[in-house]
Structures are given as C-alpha cells and as structure tokens.
Amino acid sequence: MSLLEVCVGSRREFLSSCAGAVVGARYEASGVADFLQTTVLQGPISVGLPASPPAEVTQANLAAADSLMTNFMVHEGVSAGQLAICRGGKVLLSNNYATKPPRGYEPVTRTSLFRIASLSKMFTCAGITVLRSRGDLDIDAKVFPLLGIDTPAIARDKPDPHINEITVKHLVDHAGGWNDHEGCVAKDGTHVPGTGWDPMFAARQMALEMNLNRPPSRQEIAQYMYGKKLQFAPGTQDFRSTGSKSYSNLGYMLLGLVIEKVSGQAYMDFIHKELEPDCDTSNVYLSKLMDAVKDPREVWYVSPGSAPTQLKPRSSDLLPSAYGGDFIPELHDGAGGLMTNAETLAQFSFHYAVWGLGRRAAGYTRSGSLPGTSSFTYSRPNGIDCGFVLNTREFNGGPKRLEEFSSSLQGLLDKA
C-alpha cells in the first residue's frame, strides 16, 4: 500500500495515519506522465520547457534538469516537489511535480508553499544585511544587551561568563558558543559531548522547566538560554573551522529577534517590506502549527515517526514528527520556520547571498532539512541560480540519494 493510499481522509485522519505510515513507497502510476503535474512559467509548452531560453542555457540543459528531477522523485518515492532555474533573476524553468494530493490538500502548482527549513536563514541574513547597510545595526553589537536580556528564565541558572560577548556577527557565522551538532546544553545546564540537545527542538522540555502550560515564546527561549553554559567562547570557533560542527539554529532565532528589536517590526513584516524593491518576498510566509487557520497552498509533509506533542507541554498525546512531534515552526521563524516555493528561492538568490551576509555570492549552496522537508538553493559561478523543494527527507535509497541528486544537478547547471 502506498503512502498516499494510507493517508486518505480528512486532514486530521491524514496526520494521524502518517504517524505510523511507511514512507517512500513507489508510485503506482502507469508512467511518468500520470505522476507529474508540470507547470511552465513562460512560453508555449514544449517538453516542459520555455520555447526560447537565453542562448547560454539550452533547451537540452533545461530538459536534462527536468528529467533529472522527474527520475529522482519517481525512483525515490517523493510525492511533491518543485524545481526552478533562473539566470539574472529571469525564470528559465519553473516546474512542479506531485502525485494526487491527500484529501484536504490542494493539487501542487508552482505557487504551492513548501517549508524550507534552514533556507530560512538566508532571508534572515538578508534582513541583517539591509539593517547594516542602512547604518541601523552594528554587526559587532552584543546580542543579549541589545535584546535587553540580563536575567535567566530559571532563577537557579548562572549565565556563562562569556554570554554577553556574543555579537551579531558571531551568530551569522555560527560562532556564538553553541553547537547543535552535539547539542547545545545538557539538562542540568552543563555540556557533556554527545548528551546535549538543540533547544529549537525542545520546546516541550523548556516549557516544563519554566512551568508553562504552553510552548515558550522566542523571547522566553532566549531568556532560558541566557542562563545556560556555552560550549565554547564566542568567536573561537565557527562553521568553517569546525567543519560545520558549530552550527546553531538558536543563533538564527536570536537574529530574528535582533531584526525585530532594531527595526521595530515583526520579523515577517520586515522580510516583506524592507528588502530591496525588486526582490519579491510576497510568497514567503511563516509555516504555522499553533494557528488553527492554515494557508491552503501549503503542501502535505511525509515523515515517519511520532513523539509527544511540542504544542501542549503537559499532554502525553503523540503527533507526527512533521506536525508538532518534533518542532514548532513559529518558534524557528528566521532559523527554519519559513515556507515558500522554488521559484522564489531561485529569484531571491540573484539578489542576496545564500550563505552569509551581502549580495549574490557565486559558488555558494545552502540546504535545509526537517521532518517532511528537504530544500536546496544554489548560486552557480556561471550566473545560474537554482532552488528545489521536496515534501520529505525520506528516500527509497536513503539519504545518499539526495546527495547524489544534488551533486548531479549542480554539475548539470555548471555546464549550462
């Protein structure tokens, strides 16, 4: 039985059944044409491609990219995805791929919304870039004093002596002192390698420690972490020097708070209103679980497993990992809580760096992963920008298949 056969019924039935569903079943369609629902942005349809792409990017190159995406999704059992390729901000290819949606969900189109996980961080970096360019923010500013946080959420906690040394730049560079690779902090407030946990995936634990009957707010998470020990002194390690081991989701949640504090606007309002005018972010939204009203354009997410709900700290109810059993997207916002489409990702990458601060930076790649989500954005040296999104991170051939697909797609784009 396929996943979509298992997950039939109302939205509630879908969430419940997905908790134990087997992920990665192959499609039962008679052929690729039965599986795909492909939309092309411009020009008459011709093998899924624009009729007259720029001379530098041939129809053969675009057809190969489309075929690569099609074959990957069919063979790896992915039920929804999008792929977009741009040059100079102009869309050359914008396709969507999907099986028939579960009941309660709309068919996938090029404007359907997918969670993008850590690709959210590039929007946060763009926000910091704008504030710095205006002279509104010094990236060497100390973060916790700027946020007005000077007291731990847990009275018995003693802040690390270096906590007030953390700067905005440290957070951008994953150099703030936290390490998601091994976990930020052990439950007793100290760090033992391999025993810690990422607070951005521990809303339930933090809520219980703070005696809350609801998930903590982002400000409360910041105050909670203000009282915990750092794993290294700020600025002494960073993403590159540690081979990515200093990666910190918490740091980018704090950067979202910095944007709000300095601008006086809510994070999403700033992203919608304050980036450069020709960079369209109107299709970037915060994915929501705590809000009963969901955007009908948001796709379904496929992920195995379940866990005690993060939404109700004192409840023993189990939820699917992508729907509240693992994380709450509203708390992640600029660290990993946004949703958009592949076309927006590719066009955004023409305006701002996909990694770090500043404008477009050639040769950089960023990826995102959450239960029910895989996302990638590339800015290639030849001027091509590309984004793709999937509604799962489970593949028939295992995680290596996504790595192989991503590498093949980049190689193909570099030949364009």
Automatic annotation (TrEMBL):
It holds the Pfam family Beta-lactamase. It comes from the Bacteria. Residues 66-370 form the Beta-lactamase-related domain. PANTHER family: BETA-LACTAMASE-RELATED DOMAIN-CONTAINING PROTEIN, D-ALANYL-D-ALANINE-CARBOXYPEPTIDASE/ENDOPEPTIDASE AMPH. This is CubicO group peptidase (Beta-lactamase class C family). It comes from Granulicella aggregans.
